[in-house]
Amino acid sequence: MDKIMNILIADDNNEIREIVRVLLESEGYNVIEAVDGEDAVNQVDESIDLIILDIMMPIKSGFRACIEIREKTSAPVLFLTAKTQDSDKYMAFSSGSDDYLSKPFSYTELVSRVKALLRRYYVYRGKEQVAPADTIHVNELTINTATKEVLIDTREIILTEIEYKILLLMANHRKKIFSAQNLYESVWEEPYFYSCNNTVMVHIRNLRSKLENDPQNPRYIKTVWGKGYRIE
Question: Tens digits of per-residue pLDDT, 130-156?
Fold first, then answer.
């Protein structure tokens, strides 16, 4: 990527913001700071390539901010927080985040997560390079792999890059059953651990909530009990 990436860091702790800013600027990123969740939402626009959010912030929590940010952009969101319970991670992914890193964090791990999220975003959203035009149809669902646009009939469905990648993988291999491990290792490109199963389940649930009229009786992403998921 030739352009300088813009990263928004939202945390009410001045010291954390400064540490993250200095670290990411040393890697060549341009860093914009927000002091709380509402400030983060207000600053997000199409120029922002990645958002880093704390959870516990005044005025508007990271969870609430992430939900509102998802209405404005599909850029990746990374939660960087001291809250480490599984329920917090579940809420983070449910609100639309792409990744989660606990404080205190390793500088090396933060940089590697940022680079991985940006790489996936640009590859799978196609912001710099557009693939040859192609479409995939599943009933009323259309996936345009050139523009990364997803439609049901004529209504555009806004997906995160992780959601898009899950949908594209399964739509390209219709009738194939994907276990949680298959999906995690293919989409996140990281080793699978049992705890990752919850992450996959949350993203499948979010996808269904966007694609289905009745998520409890899905037409597109079916559950094969005891085995995984498939698109028929």
Answer: 444 478 888 888 888 877 889 988 888
